[in-house]
Specification:
It contains 3 helices and 3 strands. The chain has 138 residues and is of the alpha/beta class. Strands 1-2-3 form a 3-stranded parallel β-sheet, with helices on both faces. Helix 2 (61-73) links the parallel strand 2 and strand 3. The radius of gyration is 16 Å and the shape is globular. The termini are far apart.
Length: 138
């Protein structure tokens, strides 16, 4: 999750999906356990999806709130999902200490497919980005 998040800093990355990205909020990865992931959020030009479990003890509610707020404040195009009852690493295989949920894993995979099929299709032309006017049509 955290590695996918950092990959999104590369301007060539059109989309990234981050499952239970650990330690972004605490800045405790990398050399000296002092990464700059939150500080670099403004470098993200692609679309990013963050998926966490509501019962994730590695990324507590305050950490998820900080990540979400930072993404929002920096104007990043993102979706943020918190899965009810899910713990950290809930999409790993059946040997994942009782955390694996095949149904939730399927939903998360569908989110990945939607994101990548929409953002990585070559027949849609280059990504325009920037501000857009939203029509108020129902």
């Amino acid at each position: 999750g955290h590695l996918a998040f950092r990959c999104a800093f590369d301007k060539r990355v059109a989309a990234a999906i981050c499952y239970f990205a650990t330690d972004i909020h605490s800045r405790s990865l990398g050399e000296g356990k002092c990464d700059d992931s939150l500080e670099r959020v403004g470098d993200i030009e692609g679309e990013i999806v963050m998926i966490h479990g509501k019962s994730d003890n590695h990324v507590p509610p305050s950490g998820r709130d900080l990540i979400r707020k930072t993404l929002h404040d920096k104007g990043v195009c993102f979706s943020f999902y918190e899965i009810a009852w899910a713990q950290h690493a809930f999409i790993r295989d059946e040997l994942s200490k009782g955390r694996y949920d095949p149904y939730v894993s399927k939903v998360c995979f569908e989110i990945l497919l939607e994101l990548f099929s929409r953002t990585l299709r070559s027949d849609l032309g280059p990504r325009a980005g920037g501000e857009q006017d939203i029509e108020n049509v129902c």
